[in-house]
Amino acid sequence: MLQVARALSAYQDSVEFIEGDAEALPLPDSSFDIALCQQAFMFFTNQVVAAQEIHRVLKPGGRTAISVFRTLQHNPAFEHLVRALEKHAGADAAAFMRSPFIFENPEQIRAPFIQAGFRKVTVTVRVESLRYPSIHHMVRYETLNISDPALHTGEMQTMLCNEMESAVAEYTDDHGVVFPSQDFVVYTTK
After folding, report:
1. N or C: which end of the chain has fewer CB within 10 A?
2. Contact in structure between 63 and 187 (CB atoms under 8 Å)
3. Cα angle 43, 190, 21; round to 5
């Protein structure tokens, strides 16, 4: 990810890319004005410790914006894909796809930041659209990170696409397929 970020950055000469653990950031105290985290916070083993680390590296008055998916019922594209994976690829593939969708209510995502000492924590529901040029593109793109080689065969991809096409016909239009998607976005101030 860092290699791609470096290659695509318009600011290569003025940005330092650093690899580190979110629960032990290799950064000095009070050194940043803003911390951003998009669709990763749900994967941190100890979310309170990760929030404490964000708090530690922010300057007084520093702010954060953290986005995480809401549960599958608020993200129908992924709910349908989890079902298709369960049916055709098995429980492990479905569990992998289900794993980011853990936050049911605002208090679940607010709590780690309150415990970390942030003085102002606001949670907003963000509703957006996810658009793919076709079901095939959606299935291929969203299953790339699942390591099971059987999942990436032409036969399996065809079965998943066929399953998805019938399940999501109501989301198809002349430009492909579009789904509503909901996140929680946490805004904090130190």
Report:
1. N
2. yes
3. 30
Domain boundaries, the chain: 17-189
Q: What is the pTM (predicted TM-score) of this model?
A: 0.87
Would you report the helix, strand and coil content of the chain in percent, each value rounded to 5? 45, 25, 30
Q: How far apart are CA 43 and CA 34, in angstroms?
A: 21
> Which residues, 6 or more positions from 119, have their beta carbon under 8 angstroms from its beta carbon?
189, 190
The candidate with the shortest Cα–Cα distance to 113, out of 69, 39, 63, is 63
The residues pairing with 34 across neighbouring beta strands, listed in sequence order, are 63
Q: Report pLDDT for 117.
A: 96
Which pLDDT does position 6 carry in this prediction?
77
The whole-angstrom separation of Cα 54 and Cα 112 is 11
Average pLDDT of the chain, as a whole number: 94
Is the separation of the CB atoms in 43 and 51 below 8 Å? no
The per-residue pLDDT for range 150-182, each reduced to its tens digit, is 999 999 999 999 999 989 999 999 999 999 999
Q: What class, spelled out in words, does domain 17-189 have in CATH?
A: alpha beta
Q: Give the C-alpha distances (Å, rounded to integers) separating 172 from 5, 47, 48, 139, 140.
A: 32, 37, 40, 14, 17
Measured between its terminal Cα atoms, the distance across the chain in Å is 28
